[in-house]
Amino acid sequence: QTALARILQLVESAQASKPAVQRATDKVAAVFVPAILAFCAIVVCVWAAVAAVSPPERAADMTDAEKALLVFRFALSILMVACPCALGLATPTAVVVATGAAATRLGCLVKDAQVFEVAGNRKRKMAVVLDKTGTLTEGEPGVTKTIGFEDSRAKAMLAAAEANSEHPIATAISAWAAPDGVDSTLTVTGFENIPGVGVKCDVDGHLVRAGGDLSWVVGSETMAEGLMEYVQWMQRERDDGAVVVAAAVDGVVQGCIALKDRLRPESADLVHQLRYTLDLSVWMCSGDHEATAKKVAADLGIENVIGQAKPSDKMALIRRLKLNGNTVLMVGDGVNDGPALAAADVGVAVGSGVDVSTDASDVVIHSLRGLAPFIALSRQTLKTIWRNLFWAFIFNIIMLPLAAGILYPPTGITLPPEVAGVAMACSSLVVVTNSLSIQYWTKSRYGHDEDLSKAIREATGRKVGKE
C-alpha cells in the first residue's frame, strides 16, 4: 500500500464519517417526508372543506373544477418546496469541503468528521496538552556535555544497550558512545525499556542501566558520597534545559550525558496562537526531568507543565482535565504517546500521516504550523454547519405556509408549483455555496502563509497553496 493510497484512504474515511450534529439531522430528515405528506393531506382537507362550505371572496365565483385545481396546486407547491435536500446537505457538504481544505491547505489529515465538531465547539473550555520530545522539539537530540566515561568498554556496552531502544535520546547516546557503530561481538539479553525511567539489560553478563534517576541507575536509594559530584552536575545541566542520562555497569556509575534537542522554529509561535489568539489553556507534559521540562516550558511561554511523566501520568492528566469540564486536545508524536492520544477528546499526531501510529490519533498534521489553523478551521466549519441548518429550517418555516396558501385569502398571493421547485433548488444551492465558502476562508486566511506551505511541501514532496 503506497503512502498516497493511505492518505487518500484517510481523507475518504473522514468524508464518509458523520459528526453528532449530522446524525441528529438525519433523524429529523427521516421523519421529514412523512411529516410533509401528513401536512399536505391536512392542507388539502382544510382547503377542500373551506372551498365547499365558505370559500374566500376571491374563489367565490370559481367553478368546482377551478376550486379543485386551486387545492391541487397548493398541495403540489407544498411537495415541491419541501424537499429535505437542504437539510440533508447542511452537514456533509461542510465536512467534505473542510476535510479537503485541511488536507491541502493546512497539511492535516482528518480521520473522523466528529473532530470538527469537538475541536470547533467554543461553548466548552479547551485544553491543549503538548508532548515535548519530537513534538515541540525536532526529535533529534544531540550530546552537548559529558562527565566520566573513562572506560571505553563501558561506553561500548552503553551503546549496545541503547541501540535496542527506538527513543530519539537512546539513538543519540548510542551514536555518541559508538560513532563507528555498535560492537557486534557484544551480546545483549533481557533488554527492558521502562517508560519515564530508563533502560536496563545484560551486556555480556554485565548489568547495564541508563536513565535520568541516579538512584535507580545504581540500584540504591542511598547516594554514596562519591556520587554527589554527578548529582550536582546533573542538576546544573537540567537547570540549563538539558536532558541528562546517567549510566552504570553492575551498579557502578560510569558517567553522565547531557543532551539538548532544538525547539522547532514554530513552537513558540504556536503556543502564542493557542493562548492569545484562540484563548486556549496550554499544557506541556514530558517524560523528561521536571527541571528540564520547566526550562523548556518557560522558553516557550507555557505556564502549565508536568515533568517526569510516564504514559499513565499523561492519561491521568487528560482524565483530570476532562473532569474539570475541558475538551482535551492531545498533541504527540503518535508513537510514544499512543495511550494519551487515544484517551483525549481529539488526538493529534505530528508526523507524515503514514509512518506514525494513526490508529491512536484522530488527526495527523505534517507540521505544528497547521495546528492552530486547524482549530480555527474547525470553529469555522461548525459555524458553517449551524448556518446551513438555520437556513434550511428557516426556509421551510417560511415557504411551507406560503405554499399552503396562507396569503391567498387576504392578498391572493400563491406560490406556483414551478416557482416552488426553483425555490427548493435554490435553497440547496445556498447550502452548497455556503459550505464552499470554507475553502475560500481557508485560502484567504492561510493560503499566503509561506512557512506553512513550505512545511507541507517538505513533508509531502509536492507544491501546495499556489493553485
Counting structural domains, the number is 3
User: DSSP helix count?
Assistant: 19
Give the overall silhouette: rod-shaped
Give the integer mean of the pLDDT values. 85
Protein name: Copper-transporting ATPase
Main location: membrane
Pfam families: Hydrolase
Transmembrane segments: 28-50, 70-90, 389-408, 420-441
Note the main attributes of this structure.
467 residues; alpha/beta; Calcium-transporting ATPase, cytoplasmic domain N; six-stranded antiparallel beta sheet; disordered C terminus
Blueprint of the fold:
Layout: H1 3-16, H2 20-53, H3 64-81, H4 85-89, H5 92-105, E1 108-110, H6 114-119, E2 125-130, H7 132-136, E3 142-148, H8 152-162, H9 168-177, E4 188-194, E5 198-203, E6 206-211, H10 214-218, H11 228-239, E7 243-249, E8 252-260, H12 267-277, E9 281-285, H13 290-300, E10 304-306, H14 311-323, E11 326-332, H15 338-343, E12 346-350, E13 363-365, H16 371-403, H17 408-411, H18 417-446, H19 450-460
Parallel strand pairs: 2-9, 2-11, 9-10, 11-12, 12-13
Antiparallel strand pairs: 1-13, 3-8, 4-5, 5-6, 6-7, 7-8
Descriptive account of the structure:
- With 467 residues, the chain is an alpha/beta fold.
- It folds into 3 domains: 3-94 and 376-460, no CATH class; 121-138 and 264-365, Rossmann fold (3-Layer(aba) Sandwich); 142-260, Calcium-transporting ATPase, cytoplasmic domain N (3-Layer(aba) Sandwich), CATH 3.40.1110.10.
- 54% of the residues lie in helices and 16% in strands.
- It is built from 19 helices and 13 strands.
- It has helices spanning 3-16, 20-53, 64-81, 85-89, 92-105, 114-119, 132-136, 152-162, 168-177, 214-218, 228-239, 267-277, 290-300, 311-323, 338-343, 371-403, 408-411, 417-446, 450-460, and strands spanning 108-110, 125-130, 142-148, 188-194, 198-203, 206-211, 243-249, 252-260, 281-285, 304-306, 326-332, 346-350, 363-365.
- Strands 1-13-12-11-2-9-10 form a 7-stranded mixed sheet, sandwiched between helices.
- Helix 1 (3-16) runs antiparallel to helix 5, helix 3 (64-81) packs antiparallel against helix 16 (371-403) and helix 5 (92-105) runs antiparallel to helix 16 (371-403).
- The longest helix is centred in the N-terminal third of the chain and has 34 residues, at 20-53.
- The radius of gyration is 32 Å and the shape is rod-shaped.
- Residues 353-357 and 462-467 have low confidence and may be disordered.
- GO terms for molecular function: ATP binding; ATP hydrolysis activity; copper ion binding; P-type divalent copper transporter activity.
- It is found in: Membrane.
